[in-house]
Amino acid sequence: MEKRILSVFLFVFSVVFPLLHASSGNLIVNGTRGSSLFWLCHHTFNEPFQPDKCSIFWQGYKGSDIVLHVYKNGQEEFHHQHESFQNRTTIFLDQLPLGNFSLIIEKLMLQDDEIAVKVIFISEGKPAKKLCQTTLYVAAPFQEPKIEINQAENTATCSTKGGYPKPELKWTSEDGRILKLRKLPVIKKENDGTYSVISTVNITGLNNVTCEIYNPTSKETLRMSHKEPVTPPATGTIISISIIIIIIIIIMTIIFFAVVITLKARCPLPWNVPAQRTQTTGGASAEREAPCAAPGQNESYNGVSPRENQAAYRRQNSVTNDSIAANHD
Ligand SMILES: *[C@@H]1O[C@H](CO)[C@@H](O)[C@H](O)[C@H]1NC(C)=O
Ligand SMILES: *[C@@H]1O[C@H](CO)[C@@H](O)[C@H](O)[C@H]1NC(C)=O
Ligand SMILES: *[C@@H]1O[C@H](CO)[C@@H](O)[C@H](O)[C@H]1NC(C)=O
Ligand SMILES: *[C@@H]1O[C@H](CO)[C@@H](O)[C@H](O)[C@H]1NC(C)=O
Ligand SMILES: *[C@@H]1O[C@H](CO)[C@@H](O)[C@H](O)[C@H]1NC(C)=O
Fold first, then answer.
1. How far, in Å, CA of 66 to CA of 83, rounded?
2. Could you identify the atom of ligand 2 that is nearest to the CA of residue 86?
3. Residue 241: its pLDDT value, please?
4. Which residues are CB-contacts of 156 (< 8 A; sequence separation ≥ 6)?
5. Average pLDDT, stretch 259-269?
6. Is Transmembrane helix tagged as a keyword (predicted)?
7. Looking at ligand 3, which residue's alpha carbon is closest to its atom 3?
8. What is the dotted CATH code of the domain comprising 146-227?
9. Which of 44, 53, 93, 95 is the most exposed, having the fewest neighbouring CB atoms within 10 Å of its CB?
10. Buried b vs exposed e over 274-299: b needs ≥16 C-beta within 10 Å?
11. For residue 82, with 0-12 CB atoms within 10 Å meaning exposed, 13-18 middle and 19 or more buried, which class applies?
12. Positions of CATH 2.60.40.10 in the chain
């Protein structure tokens, strides 16, 4: 008897639900396969909660009605629970009088995806209230994408599987440009309900391409990049150029030192010559002698260098010669 009333009730809702479904889905709850989902629902009573005079249905719809959980005559009732939700749902019995109609769904499955759920609260002699209309979405993560290169055709192929729902795939080049695909990705639904994806792109003239797999429910993006290895001839060229440069540097160093040693043996380096040399206004003989003075001649003695003495002596001589010449005239 009671069972038949419930059946009639469910029938009514199964007819009404499809219409409601179109306008519902205001709320969204997303979960991951295998994990638990907390569907929050709160109701504010107009009058005190009377456990034995009300029924609460946690009701879903996906093509047909799905009863997730039932509370009736002051206790939980599992007879009408859909078998896919057996042992997976929990309500907060002690908090129902406070209007806490939240439901926990454990071990989410791909079949739970896109179930439109709501709580139907029926108080004796009152119209049913529809509460907390929500759509459940379930995601499963994709495996790390793989990229394979076809050298002959100059194409890259990206593939992944095991995820849910249908992913969005795109290819980008190093500068972030989205590559145009000549063929749409092949997205296939496997027997376990998950998707596998394969996409091929022409990589002519591209060094680095990235394949991006986006899961619209979990909002997770997986990326895999492929970089063209630098071609062996180019590597060889770089090595040869480096060797040549190193050899040139060595040869130039040897020549430099050879020149320095030769110069040093013949005469002092220009920067070792005393400053007085340029100031000396003496005769041509002094100028000639300065660049190749023997070591030791530069040492000063009593503040006056021997060379200054020599120059002074020569100046004296030339003056004498001049005066002799003048005397001749
Ligand atoms: C309902 O009860 C659960 C468990 O105690 C709690 O986590 C949740 O916040 C409550 N929700 C509301 C709306 O009160
Ligand atoms: C639920 O749990 C009960 C008791 O542990 C068990 O007998 C039953 O087979 C379970 N149902 C499902 C669908 O796992
Ligand atoms: C390729 O480019 C992507 C995006 O610019 C970058 O994250 C990745 O590290 C690059 N890969 C290589 C191997 O250079
Ligand atoms: C790849 O693209 C290049 C130029 O971007 C084109 O010449 C070549 O035919 C394309 N290869 C394939 C296999 O489509
Ligand atoms: C939940 O999943 C749906 C369906 O894929 C998506 O449209 C929505 O943006 C997701 N919401 C959140 C908050 O992740």
1. 9
2. 13
3. 74
4. 147, 148, 149, 150, 171, 200, 201, 203, 209, 211, 226
5. 71
6. yes
7. 174
8. 2.60.40.10
9. 44
10. beebeebebeeebeebbeebeeeebe
11. middle
12. 2-139, 146-227
- The answer on pLDDT for 233 being more than 50 is yes
Ligand 1 atom with the smallest distance to the CA of 98 is 14
Task: State if residue 278 touches ligand 3 by the CB under 6 angstroms criterion.
Answer: no
Which atom of ligand 1 sits closest to the CA of residue 42?
13
Q: Can you tell me the distance from the alpha carbon of 129 to that of 56, in angstroms, rounded to the nearest whole number?
A: 10
User: CB of 150 closer than 6 A to ligand 4?
Assistant: no
Q: Rounded CA gap, 7 and 28, in Å?
A: 28
Distance 138 CA to ligand 5 centre (A): 9
Question: What residue ranges in the chain does DSSP mark as E strands?
Answer: 27-32, 37-39, 54-62, 64-72, 75-76, 89-91, 103-105, 115-123, 129-139, 146-150, 155-163, 168-173, 186-189, 195-202, 208-214, 221-227
Which is nearest to 52 in space by CA: 110, 122, 145, 117? 122
pLDDT at 223 over 50: yes
